[in-house]
Amino acid sequence: MLxxxxxxxxxxxxxxxxxxxxxxxxxxxxxxxxxxxxxxDMATPAQLDQIRQSLGLNEPLVTQFVTWSGQxxxxxxxxxxxxxxxxxxxxxxxxxPTLSLAIVTMLITLLLSIPMGVLAAWRHGSLxxxxxxxxxxxxxxxxxxxTGYIFIQIFAIDLRIFPVQGFKSIGxxxxxxxxxxxxxxxxxxxxxIALIARMTRAAMLDVLGEDYVRTARAKGLSERVVLFRHALxxxxxxxxxxxxxGFALMISGVVVxxxxxxxxxxxxxxxxxxxxxxxxxxxALILLTSGIYVVINLLIDISYAFMDxxxxx
Amino acid sequence: xxxxxxxxxxxxxxxxxEDLVVETAGRxxxxxxxxxxxxxxxxxxxxxxxxxxxxxxxxxxxxxGLLPKGALMxxxxxxxxxxxxxxxARPARLRQLRATRMSMIFQEPMTxxxxxxxxxxxxxxxxxxxxxxxxxxxxxxxxxxxxxVRLPDVERMCRSHPHQLSGGQRQRxxxxxxxxxxxxxxxxxxxxxxxxxxxxxxxxxLIAEIQERLGTSVLFITHDMGVVADIAxxxxxxxxxxxxxxxxxxxxxxKPERDYTRDxxxxxxxxxxxxxxxxxxxxxxxxxSELGMVYRQPSxxxxxQGTVAAKDVNIKLKRGRTLGxxxxxxxxxxTVARCVMRLIDPTEGSIRLRGEEIVGLSRGALxxxxxxxxxxxxDPNRSLNPRLTVGDSITEGPIxxxxxxxxARERAMELLELVGLPADAVDRHPHQFSGGQRQRxxxxxxLAMEPDVLVADEAVSALDVSVQAQVLDLLxxxxxxxxxxxLFITHDxxxxxxxxxxxxVMQNGRVVExxxxxxxxxxxxxxxxxxxxxxxxxxxxxxxxFRPLAPGGPGSIEATA
Lengths: 313, 561
Description:
heterodimer, A: 313 residues, MetI-like fold, 2 domains, globular, B: 561 residues, alpha/beta, Rossmann fold, 3 domains, six-stranded mixed beta sheet, 22 helices, 22 strands, 25% strand, disordered C terminus, transmembrane helix (chain A), MetI-like (chain A), cell membrane (chain A), membrane (chain A), BPD_transp_1_N (chain A)
């Protein structure tokens, strides 16, 4: 098991190198002078020269890449061109809202979608099944900004249970945090509930036809045990895959939700950085998102091995 | 069935099925079982025998209350297990009855155990679902039952997952699981069909032993008359969802009353080898020398280790002859077939097709050779593309090799007639044919390439005995007419005895014995060959002639072994 984990970790290093190379080349290979792009239209030649100097643009590409990766490894991601604060601190400030949103969303998703999928598969062809499928189609088809505003209308404006917008850190107490994060999380969750409920249903349908499920029933086990102990664990691998990639996608895809609910997270930072052409920030964000993808994929791979003892590459 | 002949159901019978009717659910319901009645007395082994689709598995699933929901349902009749009707029992009661009064083992030990749970966990949950035992009592009981089914190294077994066990070990675990609460009735649905003969023999003996010890009644479902002859006290013969004939084993084997039972018995291939045929040609069409296949697992940290799938295999196949390769699973017989087909690349040795070396040939250079050697696969339900018409399947190869589509189609129609199917089958799809017919189509497809060598990999193993006999006859006839050489891979010695001129016996990737069928099977020199022959079920019985094989008589193994 340890060897397996070590091998998975080693295998993810080249991926990160390729991503870093891509990010590096993104700025260097953009048509035109990167210094000019960074400096904007109003720059003086002296400013341009200073930027070139600070980015080391006069050096050969290879040297530039080595220096640049060296800086990254020592935690130096440069400074934002706009606010002049270090990129790492900028991101650090925005990470908590986004991660909170992603995690709460995933929790809501898992709590609702897996039982829904299991139930639909168990009662295959029944009204329950059709209802779950209908909810799935709805979840897929309504855009996030529509669901978001509908939830705000119902829960925040009409029922007044939750505030309309904003974010409070969990350090400021659970309820202030939860009441603000719940609506955006639920909004974001709709599409994942749809996706994962369907996935669970399909995987369970496959597994419920297996011989060992029949064996489990022949042993006189209760349906609950048959479904959750015998079937769901065998259906777990495809579900985990979707949960993992869904989670990674979520972190990069929170842009709209954060805008609707006015959460100062990574999504907003990304939008702002792109609009302002804040290249160091964009670079760092790409690196961060790819890093998250790689780590989550790693976790999925490792969790496979825990779920299914036959998996040992 | 003739109800008046049915013996009176006695109250002490462990299982009584009365007039059971099972239909498909839905609007156009079709009868799957039309009034099945049977009974199993305490301690008895009753065999339910029939071909695929006869309804024997449906009968057993109905007894366990395991008919697939929404697909099949019991319409009428009663199923009494120790006097309690299973069909009217509430779901909770039914769950209680399972594993405590009746339990079941299934055909495929590979898939019947949950792959992600340990053996101990899977046994333990039976105990915790049905008893109030303490953790320690459960632990002890699990170890006790695993010892009873003769599993080695019980502690390690407990911690293992199913994929770490062999097929025979898994089936022992299944038996342990079924019997851990000592139910009165054990339903065994083809429990040894997927196993090798030697393993089958052990499992059958184990069931008999445990039965004796615990006094369990066994309802044994099988298609194999050999197994029936070895274990049954009474037999029910099923066909088309009804019982055709019923009686004590001896009577059924000696004086079957119904034609169907007779046909079924007559179709069992005899174990004594066919007469040697005079060689029609001296030309060797296929030969291998020192053929070997080692699978190496690339590993980052550990040293590379290889699995030897075949080693030093030397065979020669002449035009118009049939060479059998027999052995148990893992013996390397399929590896040899795949190497010869160049579906995999052997790691050592050479393969000559009509004198030409084919090992090491590139894809392009191999192309003209492919035509000369064709394969028939085991499962005709999966080897034909369901989306292609039969005609397209047959003509695809020849057209690839430059035949005119029209000519190829005409040829396909001829071939279909040659294999005993109507020529208009060309426009139909595989699902419109039965298993036996599909295998005929597969044969026609292989013949369309006009090969010199036909490789049949377990080509009749998935077929019912009666169909099996027809397909074997067909292969024989085609061989006589076209002079094709046949490399016949099988695990079934009876089949090998019927069709092969020569046999290669393989074990652990090596050739153990090689020679004319009459000699190898009639007078085996090697202990392993003898062991295989002795494990063949029903070998004391001469089925087609409805009599026991006289010890020392013609065809008897003991005479020569």
